[in-house]
Design brief:
Blueprint (H helix, E strand, L loop, with lengths): L20 H18 L6 H13 L31 H17 L6
Helix pairs in contact: 1-3
Length: about 110
């Protein structure tokens, strides 16, 4: 069976070494940050800087810290990569947006 290759015109295709979990994590973290900030969240740089200290001891699965969005007035990880290690951004984007929507629906007390 022939493997489907990314479109030649695909701009900024994100490629990871599928044998290196740090490479996969870096691509996914970078994509999550891009997706979350595109939804109106502004990165809280203070918390990101503090996160560097947390990383020094233990990462605690933090990817990005944000402020709440400004309201207007009106899967497996490897399943999101091609065999060549290129991130299938559309699928991953959809997954992260679903998580954001679920987060927004949760009661504030648990946050």
């Amino acid at each position: 069976m022939q493997e489907k290759k990314p479109e030649k015109g695909a701009k900024n295709a994100k490629k990871a070494n599928l044998l290196d979990h740090h490479s996969i994590k870096h691509i996914l973290d970078e994509s999550v940050s891009e997706i979350v900030t595109s939804r109106g969240y502004v990165e809280d740089v203070r918390m990101s800087n503090i996160r560097l200290l947390i990383i020094y001891t233990k990462e605690k699965n933090a990817i990005l810290f944000t402020y709440p969005p400004v309201l207007s007035s009106t899967t497996t990880k490897k399943g999101r990569f091609t065999k060549d290690g290129v991130l299938v951004e559309g699928l991953f984007w959809r997954d992260v947006e679903t998580l954001i929507d679920e987060y927004i629906k949760e009661p504030k007390k648990g946050k």
